[in-house]
Each structure stands twice: as C-alpha cells, then as structure tokens.
Amino acid sequence: MESAFLSEGLGRGLLNLSKLARQLQPQLEKDLWKPVGQAAVVMALRRLADRLSQQTKDKLLLSPSYAGELSIRSELMIFTYHYSDQSYVYQRQLLALAEPQRDIFITVMRGVNEVMVICSRTLGNLVQEVFSDERERARLERVTAVTLHLSPETCYTPGIYHAILKRLAWERINLINIICTYTELTFLLEAKQAGAAFSVLSQIATL
C-alpha cells in the first residue's frame, strides 16, 4: 500500500522475495513489537504476489485521431495568490486584457484558498499588474507544459492516471502541477525536465 513500485515488482515477479523479506523484517518487528521470522515474511510476500499477479491491468486507451500525439508548450510562468473577495474581479480583468494578444497561453484556476495563474512569460508583467493588490504566495518561472491526448474511454478506466504518473516517477521526473480535462492530461514541470518527460510520455502514447 505504501509503495506502488514494490506492488508492481511483486505482481510481475521481478523481486527476490528472500532479500525483500530481510529488508522488511526489522520494520515489521518494530511495528508488531515482537520477533518475526524471515520464512513467515517470505510466505506472506508470496501470497501477496500471487494475488497481485492475478489482477488485470488495463492498457492505455488512446483516441485514433490523437494516437501518439503530444503537445508541448514552453516559456510559461505560474503565479499563485491567496484568494480574496476581489480575486474574481481581477481574474475577469486579466482574461479581458489578454484576449487580444495572439499566440499566448493563459489559464486561471481557483482552489479553496488560492488562485493560480498559468501563462506565457510575455504576460508575466500583466499578471503582476492586475493582481498587484493580492498577496502573492508563490511564483515559478521557466515552466514547460507537456500534454498527452487520451481517448474519452480513459475516464472509465481505473488506474489510468496512476499508470502514467508511475512511469514518470520511475524516471525521477518531478511534476509541479497537473491539469486534466476530458481528453487531455497536461503536466507542468521545470524546463530542464521537459525532454525526459516528453521521452517517457512518447513511449506511453505508442502503447
């Protein structure tokens, strides 16, 4: 339950159960407050591995019209502000001022206590000007967005996002944020990790 990587390794029969049992034994004895035999741990792992291997794993479903398609947008910035009674007014003002500009990206998301603006670097000064009376919580520069286009059926596929996020985590790719719409999954990350993320997602898109 605590490690998706261990679960996958067990289910695929990739792990040496005896070595894993030796690593888990001290923690198990600490948690249970009593000695635990290595053979008992191996037996428990073997039963768990059998259950995991029997679970069906759904494949990624990609729309034929989007098969293998990835979109990437660089030179983005992320501003996060504390939400106030005036935040909605500033949001509308910002979108109205940005609308005439071409070839730019901007989106505004509101949480419970925060407002986040993701935009092209060229809009950075405009965002700061419009939200100048708001309390800024964080600002991130040199952000890249990589979008994976999925089939509509993916919203009915259990574990679809977990499978993708796990692949990225294996490659130690850190995600700043995720934006999800009906058939688009967008990952926001540091520009220096964009190439590695694009490579991993390209492999997923061709499955």
Task: Kindly describe this structure.
With 207 residues, the chain is of the alpha+beta class. Helices cover 40% and strands 24% of the residues. It has helices at 4-11, 17-32, 38-54, 87-98, 124-130, 160-170, 194-205; strands spanning 70-82, 106-110, 114-120, 136-149, 177-180, 184-190. Strand 2 and strand 3 (114-120) form a beta hairpin. The protein is elongated, with a radius of gyration of 23 Å. The protein starts with a helix and ends with a helix. The model has no long low-confidence stretch (mean pLDDT 87).
Blueprint (SSEs and pairs):
Layout: H1 4-11, H2 17-32, H3 38-54, E1 70-82, H4 87-98, E2 106-110, E3 114-120, H5 124-130, E4 136-149, H6 160-170, E5 177-180, E6 184-190, H7 194-205
Helix pairs in contact: 1-3, 2-3
Question: Which features characterize this protein?
Answer:
alpha+beta; 207 residues; 6-stranded antiparallel beta sheet; 6 strands; elongated; 40% helix
Q: Give the uncertain stretches in residue-range form.
A: none
Rounded to the nearest angstrom, the distance between the terminal CA atoms is 27 Å
Count of alpha/pi helices: 7
Beta fraction of the residues?
15-25%
In percent, how helical is the residue content?
40-55%
Radius of gyration, whole Å = 23 Å
Sheet with the most strands: spatial strand order: 2-3-1-4-6-5
Shape assignment: elongated
What oligomeric state best describes the polypeptide chains here? Answer: single chain
**Largest beta-sheet characterization:** 6 strands, antiparallel
Order of helices and strands: HHHEHEEHEHEEH
| Count of extended strands | 6
> Could you tell me the mean pLDDT?
87
Return the structural class: alpha+beta
